[in-house]
């Protein structure tokens, strides 16, 4: 099918979906049909108007948050004002985005500027960092050059796939842009020279492809993106591999884009050290956690009491989906077996599954086939499942015996995506875990309130957003 026909069908489907009254081409689109660029732009604007109309009619809460300068969704510009290529703009509207979030509005002008600017950016979980860097990646591709020009590194297989899918969606009207996943399971014959413009992958595979097998030339990259940048360059994370990849880039001609919801002091220092003259966008500590995620703790006597609390809470709140985080695979396996025995439809995702199994578990969860997903830190970052309303920390996150505040924030950020409301519940079964909980509370300066898991009225109230 031609791109025009594809577009016409898409517009008509969108019209049906959001119930817009009528969509006919405006004079602007008709008059510009001889000039594909102008025509595309006019079509994109037209679609923006339709989507806005739909949103206004739905009295979407997000629109209210957009007006609040303190909200991470606040923006004064439209996507049209961000100087994106017309086909990308169509892709953005196709995703249902009607206005940029704060991080998109502030970073995109810098990322698209000439000469290219390096950037280290921080924005709360679920506020649209992916679209910010993906739009920049897609904008920087020169389709006449048949080799990798853009590299995006993610910490996990699932996140790389999710980012690639978002990129493919945004590039729907740019069919000439080609992308390749460099993740576990992807095979490339020896002596291949990759011709795709964009590579999205995990550090180990990219190191193999770029340095060991030379499937592409790291020196020819013009854009390097580190998603979840803090964990990628921290000693506890993927530092060795990422720093090796980074060292092999052309430091003068490769634009660096680092994004994360968290950067501790030391990691930020290191980021500033390896990125030349970066623009830095940082949050104040008190801005890091989101008000739309309400945080609670439940006092429990022991592990089976924690189990009892979960089933009570979930049975009462019951709507939407839940992710439960455990510190070890063993606990995750125990909990999922116990919940399954008691008749709950749960899925478990931990590092001992094959990558295919992991993706299939996540896909089923996204489709709502299981309402509860039990996992470990492997899913703490970046994973975007809109309908997750509850995150439970069956165990609080600790690193070397200390509270792991960054992981805590990423874990609870699996709910409350893009302005939605969410609930985070921490199960406390000892004075030691209570102290960890208090330390996390003090770190972010956000109250974690006591919840009585036996009090169904109270649980119902928090489930209703009171
Ligand atoms: N401008 C926008 N309008 C509407 N929805 C948006 C917009 N930008 C992003 N979204 C949606 O918001 C959700 C969260 O975005 P995204 O996953 O990029 O967040 P993030 O900031 O990368 O979060 P994390 O820190 O958890 O990785 C996604 O479902 C995405 O499609």
TrEMBL record:
Q: Which reaction does it catalyse?
A: ATP + H2O = ADP + phosphate + H(+)
Entry superkingdom: Eukaryota
Query: What's a Gene Ontology MF term here?
Result: RNA helicase activity
EC code? 3.6.4.13
An example of a Gene Ontology BP annotation on this entry?
Answer: regulation of gene expression
Please give the GO cellular component terms listed in this UniProt entry.
cytoplasm; nucleus
Q: Which residues form a coiled coil?
A: none
Q: Which SMART domains match?
A: DEXDc (SM00487), HELICc (SM00490)
Compartment(s) of residence: Cytoplasm; Nucleus
Domain Helicase ATP-binding stretches: 110-281
Domain (DEAD-box RNA helicase Q): residue spans on this chain: 77-105
Q: Where is the Helicase C-terminal domain?
A: 292-459
> Cross-referenced CDD domains, in alphabetical order?
SF2_C_DEAD
Sequence motif: Q motif, positions = 77-105
Q: Which UniProt keywords apply?
A: ATP-binding, Cytoplasm, Helicase, Hydrolase, Nucleotide-binding, Nucleus, RNA-binding
Protein name per UniProt: RNA helicase
Q: Species name for this entry? A: Phyllotreta striolata (Striped flea beetle)
